[in-house]
Write a structure and sequence with these properties.
With about 200 residues, the chain is α+β, with helices and mostly antiparallel strands. About 20% of the residues lie in helices and about 35% in strands. It has two domains: about 100 residues, Probable tRNA modification gtpase trme, domain 1 (Gyrase A, domain 2), CATH 3.30.1360.120; about 80 residues, 2-Layer Sandwich (Alpha-Beta Plaits).
Length: about 200
Amino acid sequence: MSDTASSRLSPFTGHLPSGRTGRPDGQPGLIVTPRSGLQIVQVAGQPRQLNDLAKSIAVGMQIAPPLDANMTSREPGLAAIWSGPCRWLFVADQNGPSDLSRQLTDLLADKPVAVTGLSHARAVMNISGPNVRDVLSKGCGLDFHPDRFTPDQSAQTSIAHAAVLIDCCETDQFDLYVSRSYAAFFAEWLINAGREYGVDVSEN
């Protein structure tokens, strides 16, 4: 079945009110932007197939999935995030493939892999700003120093007791992936954690 995530209601609706929250003066320390309309597809294979599978995807999708743990590959409109041994999360926005799940399924039809659409199961937000790493550190024990957590690195961890996949897009910009059922709780925690710095919630 296609996993196109077209007009699905955002799980953040009602929990991320647009505008400024917290400290009212100066530049906001945290900018939160819900990301909707994404196609999210997991590809999982056997570790012994790693190189062959990665090569097939690189040729067929024009993106080389990362072979090293906790890394992300990017091409215009498409990202491939390492999520386990021989397992990746492919994420396409409006500039990416029109039917990501179908393309990956067709491409890998002759290989013993599982292609699973997760667009309906994940909520995604982009966070940025001069205090974004301070906010993340409030709920997670990872080292978020810019020299330690650099662009194109990722991590699967827990923030405020919620399982989160963190993808560092730029030095002070991250995409956060959470289970859809935790979206409301996580959004409210994030806003509260950023209040002292000033939070600006923008549209997708």
